[in-house]
Amino acid sequence: MNRTTLSLIAGATALAAVTGFATLKTPDASGGDTARTAARLPVERTSLLCPQPSTSDIADTAYTSFTPVAEGAGDRGKAELRAAAAESDGSSDGKKSRGKAAKPVVRPKEPGKPATGDTSGAQTPALVGTAEGKFAPGWTVQETTDVAVGTGRGLLGTNCTAPDTEFWFPGASTAEDRTDYVHLTNPDDSAAVVDIDLYGKDGKLKSSVADGITVQPHAGEPILLNTLAGDPQTNLTVHVTVRSGRVGAAVQALDDKIGGDWLAASTDPAGTLVLPGIPKDATSVRLVAFAPGDTDADLKVRLASPTGLITPAGSETLHVKAGMTAATDLGDVTRGEAGSLVLTPTGSSVPVVAALRVVRGKGDKQETAFIPATAPVSARATAADNSAKGSTLAVTAPGEGAKIKVTASAGSEGGSAVTKTFTIRGGTTQNVEAPVPSGLKGTYALTVEPVSGGPVYASRMLASTQNGVPGFTVQTLPDDRGTVAVPEAEQDLSVLLKQ
User: Among candidates 372, 275, 288, 373, which has minimal Cα distance to 324?
Assistant: First the structure.
């Protein structure tokens, strides 16, 4: 064997020792290939980024961290959320400060039990979170902010997100009543360089300041959208791309009259999209969609109700011109029942992104939330920061029916976990009667796991009425990325061994 081959064998052996999955065997005497092994293992390290919650002096924000108990995750590890600024000394090289870091906002003690922390006021920074070992698989953090009065008043919530290099946000706005920010958070030791493109009803908006935005190491940067474009636009699609580095991104949409919330990124562009969990008492629903490519998209619009798929009268289809944002008002489309929107191509499949702006209440007692298109729950998804009252779990099976398992974790201050199973009929949405921990004290997490059947999509609504205003926020539940597929490394190595 030559030195290269020996090095490859040594590398594969080390990989096997660390991960416990790789299998390396030389060809047998007959020259046949050996069996190859691949598996899914719990992730060993992950990071989450929470945007600056509010610019209001009277904002109160709660952070809730939760990691489901995972087999094979080991018995060691740690997790914590810290202020982004505490990760750096502010120098241009991004070196971490020593001895100056602030106390973590949240530091969980064990998987299976939520950990909480809180902040208040306008000076609360973005947070950078890391989890290792037993705390990493499926780690979920919820940021929930209560703003009593002022622009964007109401209940604002978002799942803290993993860093990435591209994000789509249909549903933003620079209209007169709206104040929208795109929040960028950089978790790394070097600066990130970001481009922001805005697309309105007539195409891409011209801007001389939206390219090459620098986000300093371990820092959050809120960008006011109306400083990036000229004329006000009621319906916008925001496209965030990262030239170098990686960031977390979310849009904070604040309205002078009907409250505000966080607009999370839509799932990757696709021909078929599901937007789950429209509240049954929604008084106004607006669909915003965008086709990123060079081809127009024609979409069939259907509502997955508790009894099956129906077509909203007057909104049967939506034509989306390539490179332009399209919107349609669906009114009170749910008519007092749980519902999810299902978008499918009427002809050729063209990738699109989409989101819903949802309003509850009437007159000066209205509140807003957003529901982006989301990916299905492939293995497991989690929603943190639930209470005995005010949490609604919506699950839809747009095609084949499905069976799911829903687990309510132990409470953050006491209580025992409880699990129930539910059957979701094909083509329907159900607001399931999610379990509540026995003897609950504090807050708890809900975990959704498919058992059998077709794909399922889910979301969780938190509701809290203040001064007659029906405050609410909706978080979709994509898969929690708790495991990672390991490569079949020995396949290529066996070829090298024959040389």
Answer: 288
Rg (CA), the chain: 24
Q: In which order are the strands placed within the sheet that holds 444-453?
A: 381-386, 444-453, 402-408, 418-424
Name the DSSP letter for residue 8: H
Please answer whether residues 229 and 205 qualify as being in contact, where contact means their C-beta atoms are separated by less than 8 angstroms: yes
Amino acid 144 reads T
Show the CA angle centred on residue 270, arms to residues 254 and 194, nearest 5°.
50
Q: Is 464 exposed, middle or buried (0-12, 13-18, 19+ CB in 10 A)?
A: middle
Q: What is the dihedral of CA 302, 307, 308, 310, to 10 degrees?
A: -30
Q: In what order do the strands lie in the sheet with 284-290?
A: 325-331, 284-290, 353-360, 367-372
**SS3 at position 131:** strand
pTM as predicted: 0.88
Q: Could you read off the pLDDT tens digit of each residue along the chain, which spans 499 residues?
A: 443 333 333 333 333 333 333 333 333 433 444 444 557 899 999 999 999 999 899 999 999 999 999 888 888 999 999 999 754 444 434 344 433 457 899 999 999 999 999 999 988 999 999 999 999 999 999 999 999 888 889 999 999 999 999 999 999 999 999 999 999 999 999 999 999 999 999 999 998 888 999 999 999 999 999 999 888 999 999 999 999 999 999 999 999 999 999 999 999 999 999 999 999 999 999 999 999 999 999 999 999 999 999 999 999 999 999 999 999 999 999 999 999 999 999 999 999 999 999 999 999 999 999 999 999 999 999 999 999 899 999 999 999 999 999 999 999 999 999 999 999 999 999 999 999 999 999 999 999 999 999 999 999 999 998 888 999 999 999 999 888 887 765 444 444 334 4
